[in-house]
Structure formats: C-alpha cells, structure tokens
Amino acid sequence: MAPAPPLLLIGSTNSYFTLKVRGYLKWKGVAFEETVPSAELYRTYLAAVVKVQQMPVLVDRVRKEAVVDTSTIIDYVEKWYSPSEADAAAAPCLLGGAVPAAPRQRAMCYLLETFADEWLKFPAMHYRWSFPSQRAATAQDFGELLYPAAAQGERLKRCGSAMAKFGGFLAPLGIHAGTTAAGVERAFRTLCERLTAHLECFEFLFGAKPTLADFAFAGPFAAHLCRDPVPAALVRAEYPLVATWVERVQLITPPLSGRGWVVDGEGLPVRAPYPDAQARRMNAAFENDGIPASLERVLDVCFEEHAPILINTHAAVQQYLARTPTAAAGRRAIPRIIGFHPFRIGGVDGKRAVWPLDLWKLARGIPASHDAKAAVRTYVASRYGANGRALMDVMDALPPLHLIDGTKLYTALPKGGAHL
Fold first, then answer.
1. Which of 409, 416, 413, 418 shows the shortest CA–CA distance to 333?
2. What are phi and psi of 349, to 5 degrees?
3. What's the confidence (pLDDT) of residue 332?
4. Model pLDDT for residues 303-359, shown as the tens digit of each residue
5. What is the pTM of this model?
6. Left, alpha or beta for 42 (phi > 0: left; psi -120 to 50: alpha)?
7. What region, left, alpha or beta, does residue 334 occupy, with left being phi > 0 and alpha being psi -120 to 50 degrees?
8. Residues paired with residue 299 on neighbouring β-strands, in sequence order
9. Using a CB cutoff of 8 Å and minimum separation of 24, what contacts does 83-90 make?
10. In degrees rounded to 5, what are phi and psi of residue 149?
C-alpha cells in the first residue's frame, strides 16, 4: 500500500501568514510539503474548489480537507496530527501542544497571537511598501514568486500590478507618510527593545520551546521585517537577538537548549534527555502559571498599542450589528471592513479601517472555565491597568463569532439553511 501523502502547504516565502504556519509545521514534526501556487493551481483548485483568494491554504489529502486561516490551520493540525512521544525523539515537535495549559499563560499566548497577526501588520506593511529604495528588491522577490517561468525583465514588468495592490493596503491600515508612519516606526522599535530584553533571558516567549505566540510573531518577521532590505538591516544591526530568535522559530538555525546530543553505551551519538539544565532554568520562571517581568513588558506593548484598537473595533461592530438585523441574526456575513475609526500608534493619531475579524481572533483567548476566566481577569486588571480592564470587558461582551471557510464572519452557524 502506498504511503499516505503528506500535508500540502500552499503559500509563498514572502507571505506573512504562510511563514507562521511553516514554522509551526516544522517544529511540530508533521510531514508536509509546500508549493507556491502556480496560475493553474490557483485557477483550478484555490479559486474553483476551495473558493478563496488568500494564502496560505493547508491541504490534507488523506482527510480530503482544505483548511484556510492560520489559526484554524494550526488548530486543525493540533487536533488531527499530534505526534507521539516516540516521534519526539526524532523531530523537534511540540509535545503538549502549541499553547500553554495554565490559564494566565494560555490567555496571554492567544493575546500575543492576535497582536502578531493583526497589529504587526503596521510595521510589516509600512517597511515593505513605504521605501522606494527597496522597490527593485521587492519587485525581484514578487517576480520570482508570481512569474517563475518568465524572463527576468518580464517578471519585473508583470508584477507591478500585484505590488500596487498590496501597497494599497497602507491607507486602510492608516499608515501615512509624515504622520502615522513615524508612530509605526517608534512603536516597532519599542517592541523590538522589549523583545530583546526578554530574549536575553529566554530562548522563546514562554521559555525553552516555542508556542503559538512565537509562530505568530515569526511570520511577519521572517516574511517581511527580516527579509526586506530596509527593515532587515535595522533588525539585524540593532536587534540581533530578535533576528536569531526568528531563525530559531523557523528552524533555520537550531535551538540553543533542549536538543543536545550525548554518546550512548555503544559509542553512538543520541539525543540528550529533554529538558536539559538550560531548558529547566528557563522553564522555572514559568512554573505555577508565572509570567516573568520581561514578557510582561512585551505584553505592555499589546495593551498600550493594540488593546485600544480592539476596544474601538468592538464598539464599531456592536453599532453595525444594531443597524443590520440580518448580520446580528447570523443570516448575513459581517463585511471584512465596516468603516473607519480613530486610532493611535507610537503616540501619533490617525484613522484606520475597522476589521471585525480581529474580534474573532481575540475571542480565541477567552478562558473556557469560570475559574480560569476569573484568574485571567484578576491578573490583567491588576497588571495592565485601564486598557486591560476594558479589554476584559470586551471579551466578556463579545457576541458569538464563527469564521466560515476561513474568510466569512457570522454571529451564528446556519440552521437548516444557507448563509447569505
């Protein structure tokens, strides 16, 4: 009998979200292969069968499933492809799952995923599309991915429309030269400084092995901020610990701890037992649901910069649902964008589009039990001040949100009928 085909990851190497999933799959030790979507694959499969216009898509050819949206993809693999302890001896997999089990750590891990997926779009998109000096390098990158069979000069001509489309996202994000762009750069430097201080003591965000939060951060860093010439020069020169952390999460370089080798009784090299002394030291700071001060300083950026956006997004969605009964009843999808709202980044005020999908991502971190929810609320309210308390209130008040086919957001699942 032929072996089962591995998972197939359809995406691109300069895709923010493709690299989030790729890092996770590599650490998970799950067999997979990847491909950039050719024009034919896009037309005959992604558009015709999966009916999406986004990446990545994970194809499970055993279960005959195509999974869209990175959070959903990772949840899917966690459910169906958790490796055994025997597998852990041969691959750097995530035994115990990609999310910490303790309630405070679990909630903060999901919050960091939301921050990385949604807020890091500001620096990732700004540093890719706001600097004409790197346009030739960006065109070369896109040309190789989109038109690999074309001659070099033809590639650069043909990728112009795709580059213009992606560069057009700066305005909806609220990124404008002379105003919010400076705030984006200031806030990004603050984040990198806080990450550096944490990485001086820990190999990953939650100790000695990566979590969902690490994979979410590594996506925009690996695909944009450590890849494009302008931000890569900044990160590698001024924040080298951040750059090497991203490489570890992507398994470009091996981890520093927990994967040592020893010689067995037959004189052959074998993996050392995990955790080793270095891993135990780092993990000790996270015992009893602890969150070390250096990680709290990273979380401060989330609560200072991103929490107000999420709070305002919730208010805008509530107003939209109040005036749109079909969406409130779950019979119509909530649009991807529902107008604009004010925001602040790096101390600079601006206006940006309202993306309701951010709330679905936020809802993933709501603790399941009453006791866990109380523990998280007490911690957040005492440590992160007014923004923390307001964000907890939003999470308590969120309507049910369901992501259908990775792209459509509803307040209810269909009962005996189709969504509009």
1. 409
2. -85, 145
3. 92
4. 999 999 999 999 999 999 999 999 999 999 999 999 999 999 999 999 999 999 999
5. 0.93
6. alpha
7. beta
8. none
9. 83/28, 83/29, 83/30, 87/29, 88/29, 88/274, 89/271, 90/29
10. -85, -10
Q: What is the pLDDT of residues 361-412, one digit of tens each?
A: 999 999 989 999 999 999 999 999 999 999 999 999 998 999 988 888 999 8
Q: How far is CA 201 from the centre of its chain?
A: 23
**What are the φ/ψ torsions at residue 340 (nearest 5 degrees)?**
-125, 155
Q: How, if at all, do strands 7-10 and 32-35 pair?
A: parallel
Give the start-end residues of each E strand in 63-168: 65-68
Cα(185)–Cα(110) distance, integer angstroms: 24
SS3 384: coil
Contact 215, 20 (CB under 8 A): yes
Q: CA nearest 326: which of 416, 403, 414?
A: 414
Residue 419 has pLDDT above 50, yes or no: no
* pLDDT of 258 strictly over 70: no
Q: Are 321 and 411 in contact (CB under 8 A)?
A: yes
Residues 28-78: pLDDT tens digits? Answer: 988 899 998 877 888 899 888 888 888 899 999 999 999 999 999 999 999
Q: Please name the residues in contact with 86: beta carbons below 8 A apart, sequence gap of 6 or more.
A: none
Rounded Cα gap, residues 230 and 415, in angstroms: 50
| Measured distance CA(215)–CA(374) in Å, rounded | 27
Tell me which DSSP letter residue 420 carries: -
Strands lying side by side in the sheet with 32-35: 32-35, 7-10, 57-60, 65-68
Instruction: Work out the angle at residue 130's Cα, subtended by the Cα atoms of residues 70 and 180, and round it to the nearest 5 degrees.
Output: 85
Token representation of residue 259:
């994967």
Nearest in space to 278 (alpha carbons), one of 249, 258, 253: 258
Classify residue 355 by its DSSP letter: -
Q: What distance lies between CA 96 and its chain's CA centroid?
A: 20
pLDDT of the residue at 93: 56
One-letter amino acid of 205 = L
Among residues 10, 59, 60, 68, the alpha carbon closest in space to that of 34 is found at: 10
Structure tokens that stand for 159 in this block: 């990728």
Identity of residue 85: E
Residue pair 255/92 in contact by the 8 Å Cβ criterion: yes
- 105 Cβ contact partners less than 8 Å away, ≥ 6 residues apart: 206, 286, 289, 291
Q: Encoding tokens for residue 156?
A: 């650069």
